Amino acid sequence: MGRRAKFTADDLLDAALRIALDDGPSAVTASAVAQASGAPSGSVYHRFAGSDEILARLWLRTIVEFQSGFVEALSRDDTLAAADATIAYVFSWCDANPGKARLLLTFDEREIGRRAPEAVTQELRDHNDAARRSVADWTLRHFGSTDTEHFDRAVWALVDLPYGAVRRHLPDGRPRAWLREAVVESAHRAIGQPRSTR
Fold first, then answer.
1. CA triple 64-108-24, angle to 5 deg
2. Residues contacting 172, CB < 8 A, separation 6+
3. What is the phi/psi pair of residue 86, to 5°?
4. Quick one: which of 47, 53, 68, 161 has the fewest CB in 10 Å?
5. 24 burial type by CB count under 10 A (0-12 exposed, 13-18 middle, 19+ buried)
């Protein structure tokens, strides 16, 4: 039975997250990660080809963690309950993970993706496509249609509204309770009642 690695990939990515938040994504280098984690440089290069892959893997790990809960909340049978649960999830996840939330909401995904290895870029596309399909599925269940107007309403209510509310309070604070309630009310006005109750 092999010996457990002293420094796991997650240990190194946790160090990369601290560096990115303190000094910006350009400061995430293999040597900086090694120094911050206490790992030998060889351990870093054994897992990652370089700084671009470190940052891309950090982004991918974070977006997968966030999207898994987002998709689960949105999949509830009752579409209004699903919308409420999804909005609550965005607030709760960001409240529990302020550093990761700041990474997702303030860093440039396009720039990270442009520099990432193709394998990581494909994984990121796959996960983003799955999240988009979950919104499209909710839109169809709620409105009975996925045309442009209905899909735009869903994205605005389920993504743009809660993300925008949370982003304004990062990195130094957390949204107040009334703001979450205001987002839910605004979202309900945008999406209305599900088609089965009209």
1. 100
2. none
3. -70, -45
4. 68
5. exposed
| Nearest by Cα to 142 from 79, 187, 185 | 79
pLDDT of residue 188 exceeding 70: yes
**Predicted confidence (pLDDT) per residue in 143-156, tens digit:** 999 999 999 999 99
| pLDDT one-digit tens code per residue, 103-133 | 988 788 888 888 888 999 999 999 999 999 9
Rounded mean pLDDT, 79-91? 97
Angle at 104 between CA 108 and CA 181, to 5 degrees: 130
In degrees and rounded to multiples of 5, residue 78 shows phi and psi of: -75, 115
- Token digits of residue 190: 């945008």
CB proximity list for 20: less than 8 A, separation 6 or greater: 27, 28, 55, 58, 103, 107
> How many residues would you count in the chain?
198
| DSSP tag of 44 | H
CB-CB contact of 116 with 124 (8 Å): yes
Q: Are 53 and 12 in contact (CB under 8 A)?
A: no
Q: What is the mean pLDDT of residues 78-97?
A: 95
Distance CA 153, CA 131 (A): 16
